[in-house]
Amino acid sequence: MSNITTNIKGIRDIMRKDTGVDGDAQRISQMVWMLFMKIFADKEEEWEITIDDYESPIPENLKWQNWAEDDEGLTGDALMDFINNELFPALKELDITISPQAKIIRSVFEDTYNYMKNGTLFRQVINEIDKIDFNSSEDRHLFNDIYETILKELQSAGSSGEYYTPRAVTQFMVDIINPQLGETVLDPACGTGGFLTCTIDHMRNQVKTPQDRDVLQRAIRGIEKKPLPHLLCTTNLMLHGFDLPAVNRGNYLNKPYADWGSKDKVDVILTNPPFGGV
């Protein structure tokens, strides 16, 4: 079993001891927003090199490396006080005009909650997460496998059609449709981003220059109504090298057809429409 699998199993076991976390869906949501903070911190190291004049949208004291990285740092009640009364309020109200990256964070935290109540257990989880390096291609690659496991767990936490189209199906559909670099691709009910990430991997073979990379970044669009799949999708896209927000929270069916303009048009739609509920 890889280290990263051991990390995730460790996180899961610690969270089960916390009385605030009730059931699989809450545990997964808690785990993913914490992983998101670490992934974002690792991505920022990369963006400082790859994006000209990159400025972090996160205030200095709220950056992962300044409250989480020190194994012996904030813990217990002081840590929970910081999370609930400083970190969350600030990230939920982040000024999205600062940068596209600010928009990513705000969209993730608007409907995300901290369920954990025990600061000592919270510190243990942080220390586990901090062992993963999302800039190491090996860790990132392994994390994709973990990610699949998290999605499968979600199947049992919700109704199975809700979050997950089997990978073989998305792969087959993308291969058959064969989207080309330069085309725009939309999934109007994108869930955790299976079709989008499959499309990215498919188009990435066609990327030859930095300009091509920018074209790919602008080609992918997703809409997702529910907070947890949206959080998972955003995290998934960041792990697939996306620096710009590509997924919006919303319900595509709320917009009257008459309101759709030329900017809403896309070349390709790849989706598995939701078929449960109403």
Can you tag this structure with a few keywords?
about 280 residues, mainly alpha, Ferritin, Rossmann fold
Task: Describe, in plain words, how this protein is organized in 3D.
The protein is mainly α. It has 2 domains: 132 residues, Ferritin (Up-down Bundle); 111 residues, Vaccinia Virus protein VP39 (Rossmann fold, 3-Layer(aba) Sandwich), CATH 3.40.50.150. It contains 11 helices and 4 strands. Strands 3-2-1-4 form a 4-stranded parallel β-sheet. The chain starts with a helix and ends in a 9-residue tail after the last strand.
Helix-strand blueprint:
Layout: H1 3-16, H2 23-50, H3 64-67, H4 76-92, H5 100-109, H6 119-129, H7 137-157, H8 167-177, E1 185-187, H9 194-204, H10 210-219, E2 220-224, H11 227-239, E3 247-249, E4 268-269
Parallel strand pairs: 1-2, 1-4, 2-3
Number of helices: 11
Largest sheet: 4 strands, parallel
Q: Judging from the principal axes of the Cα atoms, what is the shape?
A: globular
Gap between N and C termini = 41 Å
CATH fold label of the largest domain: Ferritin
Low-confidence spans:
none
* Largest sheet: spatial strand order: 3-2-1-4
The CATH architecture category of the largest domain equals: Up-down Bundle
Short description:
Helices cover 54% and strands 5% of the residues.
